[in-house]
C-alpha cells in the first residue's frame, strides 16, 4: 500500500462544496482514522467524506444563510411575532433534525419548559439550527445562549440570528468529541445527537455530557429514520439511553421521559 499523506486528504476535502466549511479539527480527526483503512488517496478521500456524510451531510443541505438572515432581520424589524416564527420555521427546515421537529414545535418547548422552568442560561450542544427556536422558548430579558456545532457557516448564521433576537450569545465552532463542553446553565440540550456521537467512537456521547453543570440536562433521540421509517428506533434508543446513564454514573439522578409525539425526550436532573 502506498503512503497516503494526511495533508493530501485534507486538501481534497477542503475543496468539496459540501464539506469545506466543516471544522478542520473534525475533518483531520476523521481522515486520520480512515487513512489507515484506505488503499490509496482516492479511497481515503471517499472514506472521509462518507464519515462526514454520516455525522453532518445527511442532515443538512446548503441553505442560503445570508438570505435567511436578511428575511429574519426584516421580520424582526416588522414587529410581527408570527412573521418572525414563520421565517424561523423556514430556516429550521434546512436541517433534518429541526425539520422533523416542526410539526410538534408548538408543543415541544411548552411541555419541556413546563418541567424545567424557563431558563436564563441555555447550553445547546451540537446545536444545528435549534437556536432558531428561541421564539418558542420565552427566554427572559438578559438570557444567555451558549451553543456549538462543527460547521463554520452554520455557526456564523446562528450567532447572527441570536444577535438579531437580542440574546447574549456565545456560539462557537467545536468538535465535542475531542473537546467536550463545560457549560454552566439552567438547561443543557443534546438533541438527537447521541447517535452521531456514537458513530465517532465509544464514550463520545458520555464525554459530551460529563462536563455539563446544569439544573436540567435534556437528551433526545429520533424515533424515525431520515426516510420516515420507525424500525424499532424508540425501543433501541431508550435502551441506549439506559446504557448512557450507566456510562456517566448518573443512576441516582432523577430522570423523566416526556410524551412528545415524534421525538423521545428525556430530562435528567442536574447538579447545578
Strand content: 15-25%
Overall morphology: globular
For the secondary structure, the number of strands is 7
Helix content: 40-55%
The average pLDDT value, as a whole number, equals 93
Main sheet: strands, sense, barrel: 7 strands, mixed
Rg from alpha-carbon coordinates: 19 Å
Between the first and last Cα atoms, what is the distance in angstroms?
A: 53 Å
Cross-sheet strand order for the largest sheet: 3-2-1-4-5-7-6
- Tally of helical runs: 12
Contiguous uncertain segments of 5+ residues: none
Order of helices and strands: HHHHHHHEHEHEEHHEHEE
Structural class: alpha/beta
How would you characterize the overall build of this protein?
This protein has twelve helices and seven strands. By secondary structure, it is α/β, with parallel strands linked by helices. A seven-stranded mixed beta sheet has the order 3-2-1-4-5-7-6. 39% of the residues are buried. The mean pLDDT is 93.
Which key features would you list for this structure?
alpha/beta, 12 helices, 272 residues
List the helices and strands and how they pair.
Blueprint: H1 6-14, H2 24-35, H3 41-57, H4 65-78, H5 81-92, H6 96-101, H7 105-116, E1 121-124, H8 134-137, E2 144-149, H9 152-164, E3 168-173, E4 184-191, H10 194-198, H11 204-210, E5 213-222, H12 233-248, E6 255-258, E7 263-269
Parallel strand pairs: 1-2, 1-4, 2-3, 4-5
Antiparallel strand pairs: 5-7, 6-7
Helix pairs in contact: 1-2, 1-3, 2-3, 4-5, 4-9, 11-12
Amino acid at each position: 500500500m502506498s503512503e497516503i499523506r494526511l495533508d493530501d486528504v485534507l486538501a481534497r476535502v477542503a475543496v468539496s462544496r459540501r464539506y469545506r466549511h466543516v471544522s478542520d479539527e473534525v475533518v483531520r480527526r476523521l481522515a486520520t482514522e480512515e487513512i489507515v483503512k484506505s488503499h490509496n488517496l482516492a479511497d481515503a478521500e471517499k472514506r472521509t467524506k462518507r464519515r462526514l456524510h454520516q455525522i453532518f451531510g445527511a442532515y443538512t443541505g446548503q441553505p442560503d444563510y445570508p438570505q435567511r438572515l436578511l428575511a429574519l432581520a426584516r421580520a424582526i424589524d416588522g414587529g410581527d411575532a408570527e412573521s418572525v416564527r414563520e421565517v424561523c420555521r423556514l430556516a429550521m427546515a434546512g436541517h433534518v433534525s429541526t425539520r422533523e421537529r416542526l410539526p410538534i414545535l408548538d408543543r415541544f418547548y411548552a411541555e419541556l419548559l413546563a418541567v424545567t422552568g424557563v431558563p436564563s442560561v441555555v447550553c445547546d450542544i451540537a446545536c444545528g439550527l435549534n437556536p432558531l427556536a428561541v421564539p418558542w422558548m420565552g427566554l427572559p430579558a438578559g438570557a444567555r445562549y451558549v451553543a456549538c456545532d462543527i460547521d463554520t457557516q452554520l455557526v456564523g448564521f446562528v450567532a447572527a440570528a441570536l444577535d438579531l433576537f437580542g440574546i447574549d450569545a456565545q456560539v462557537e465552532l467545536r468538535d465535542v468529541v475531542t473537546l467536550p463542553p463545560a457549560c454552566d446553565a439552567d438547561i443543557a440540550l443534546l438533541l438527537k445527537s447521541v447517535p452521531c456521537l456514537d458513530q465517532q467512537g465509544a464514550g463520545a456521547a458520555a464525554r459530551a455530557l460529563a462536563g455539563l453543570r446544569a439544573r436540567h440536562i435534556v437528551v433526545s433521540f429520533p424515533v424515525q429514520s431520515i426516510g420516515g421509517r420507525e424500525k424499532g428506533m424508540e425501543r433501541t434508543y431508550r435502551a441506549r439511553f439506559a446504557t448512557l446513564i450507566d456510562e456517566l454514573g448518573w443512576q441516582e439522578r432523577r430522570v423523566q421521559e416526556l410524551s412528545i409525539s415524534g421525538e423521545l425526550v428525556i430530562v435528567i436532573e442536574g447538579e447545578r
